[in-house]
Structures are given as C-alpha cells and as structure tokens.
Amino acid sequence: MPLNDATRYLINADSLQQMKPGAMLINTGRGALVETPALIEALKSGQLGYLGLDVYEEEANLFFEDRSDLPLQDDVLARLLTFPNVIVTAHQAFLTREALAAIARTTLDNIAAWAAGRPCNQVDT
To answer: Coiled coil: which residue ranges (predicted)?
Structure first.
C-alpha cells in the first residue's frame, strides 16, 4: 500500500493519547505511519508501555549496510533505543517465503518485460 497524506503519521500524539495507558504498539507496515517523536513522548510518560518497530521512517541509511563500526548518527533512533521496553529490528518482517517468492516473481517479470521492450511493472515501496 503506498503511503499518502491520509496514512502518514496515522499514529501520532492524538491517537496515542486515545490508547489505553501502557498499550503495546507494533509497527511492521511503514515507518511513516508513526510520528516517532510522539512515540518517544508517549514512552516517557508511560502512555505507551511497549513498542516494537520493524520499520523506521529513516531506515534506508541505517539498516541495509554494516555500520557497526560507526557511531549512530540518528538522534531520534538513538533515543528510542535507550528504552528497555522498545525493540527495533532491521526491517525483517518481509523475510517470509511468500514475500521472497513475490520479489523473485516481480524481478523475473521485469527482466522479461525489459528483454521484450515493454515497460517494467511499477511497484509501490
């Protein structure tokens, strides 16, 4: 599903306040569904009890290379990682048999389209 203005920051300070205090939020969909600074405030106040993120809005420059020998340059992510009730994974939710088969199928379809002189399929990211 493409992210648009209707879904950007769907989880924000207002929606977090409507949750039961101590609620658990898990986002494996899109990083920009959640307004990260609002998550931090909700975690600090206890309004949000637990947080699991497999996606992060600024993940492209963080997770897809080994940067273990470099200091973390993202202060927002660094703050999230200080909470004992937060877990952040490097966008692994896509790593299923079905998702990998779909990726392979799309890749092969695009190669065939390219070879035949047709436009490649558009994929929303």
So the answer is: none
